[in-house]
Amino acid sequence: MRFCSVFFWLIGLSSLTVSAQTPKTTRAPPAAIMVQFDPDHVAVTAIQGLSNRSTGRALMADDPVRIASISKTFVGLAVMRLVEQRVLELDRDVSDYLGWPLQHPSHRNAPISLRLLLSHQSGLRDGINYALPMDAQLEAELKNPKAWDIDHPPGTYFAYANLNFPVIAAVMEAATGKRFDHIMKTQVFDPLELDACFNWTLCSDTKLTAAVTLYRATGEVARDDLRGIRESCSVVPARDGNCDMTRYQLGQTGSIFSPQGGLRISANDLAKIGQIFLRNDGRYLSQASMAQMTKPAWQYDGTNGDSEDGYFCAYGLAIHVLAAPRRPASCKDDRFGDGALRFGHSGEAYALKSGLWINPAKKEGIAFYRTEVPENDPSGHCIYFCD
Asked: What is the mean pLDDT of residues 125-142?
């Protein structure tokens, strides 16, 4: 697969009208938006489509959408806040928090830390379902050898895996005694004045009304056709369909709020997070914590990870680093075609593709998403039009 520059995707989106109103006689185009920002300003530079076709509501920059794997960066922010509060330690064996041994089946003496989980070097793989039901027990599920890379011990090999993040969520719950969604609210959303949530559990009614419905390219609803009505069960229910949250055990499952991709957030609020990284003034996170997140915790040397055909060549703590120095020629991660180092994350799920990318040298960044991505769009984590 050859990854093309983001430039071509941005040119296509930039040609859209800033008004999202569409004549009733034509089918609305896919919902899509691009927001550009610097430390002090946010500007919507392109927007189109409807947040919901049934209601005819035009897409707006404050409308929340399921942003997919950009969610991981927000989890990383919460972890770093808890580290600064001395609730968590990045390099401690997470078994100490969980109360049960998290062990690689072939390397039981190799401790697994939050640093390894956040940087996809834990040895976990998406060989089992990471959207575990409410009554599942991570301890039991992770005894399945399919959840692990048998060939590489923890800390020696990178492979992108969503399963890391339910484990991280369980660690956060076990250490704090609070539900993951409440942790995210108190550690990230409230301090930064974001009306955002995971799996709709704590978003306001205002945001609920503005929810962006995700449609497939065929026009079928893929997710979040809410139309202002809160779901009867916003989390992954138990195996029998029960959604009684009093049955949920903290630190035992970690997946029901979809920490790997279930964040609902607007494009404007994504840009606010980008501004936090650009300002790096120590008010939300210390500069040392920001550096820990954004510098490569892993860098591809040609043999030490699954780069997915050159897509992943450097990764921090819940942060994807693009065009880092000293990477092999096989890397194809210069998504913008200018050779500049950037960091952020992409997202891809339910026919949506998204990105939050920050250029620290130029003190600027972009946040964007597009919906109704065709099923035959290039596979993997490609976020733009590619061939």
From this structure: 95
